[in-house]
Amino acid sequence: MHVDPCDDVNVAELSPQYRHIIDKVRKIVKLFRKSPVKNDSILQKYVKEAHQGKELSLLLDCPTRWNSLVTMLSRFSLLRTSIQKAMIDLKAPEQPTDPDFAVVDEIIAALEPVALAVQVLSRKDVNLLSAEAAIQFCVAQLREQQSQLGKTMAAALLSRVRERYAIHSTVLRYLHFGDESSEFSEREVSGMTIRKFIHQLLLRLDQGPSCDRAAVVTAAISPSSQESELAQSSFSGDAAANSRKSSLLIFDNCRQRPACLDMSSAINSLFSVKSIVSTG
Fold first, then answer.
1. Which domain holds residue 243?
2. What is the model's pTM?
3. Residue 2 located in a structural domain
4. Residues 175/194, Cβ–Cβ less than 8 Å
């Protein structure tokens, strides 16, 4: 797979083999969509025979919507026999072959898990945990495929997610399940690092809305700064005891909540526990 900025959006990262098949499918689709006579008199005749009198038209994808490529290829594969018969009747110079349809099915199998994951990520109630689960499902489905396309997409998706993975998902995972490990994290994050991150977040929130929260988050999620601060900083006397007490109460409270706890509920839980500790 490679990237050519001059290519269409849908096939920008496809090898020449896949690009050739997609271009061939588009030509056949346009052939029937531009000619009502060829579509109604020839193609639909075979479609009705194969689908109990029901008419099904070929669909053309939109270059700016990659998921429309899945729709076009799925309909093309569904009408496989009808298309082959119609192309023979038309004596078209470029006939769709069985290997062509095999490649089409391969592309569909690779894009369908991605389309499903995108649908989940587009929901209004999605949070970091459900988003991570959707991407993990997508990667697992791609890895199970026999085609090189599926395996390549799985590796590329995993690499891109790891580049952007921050500590926030790890914190929620730890609060929900007591597990700080993640396939997307390039390095292990210890429970102590997670506790320190939440402790720093609570301290920053004490400063009120006037504090520079963007700078706080940027500094807090840096892995190198986390480890260095953890090694260098030490709390003395009552401050250290209060910090440990606050962290323990936070984790005990949040980890007793149901697994469906979303991000806003987790933050509200942190606020409520924090107020109890500060007034107690």
1. 191-279
2. 0.64
3. yes
4. no
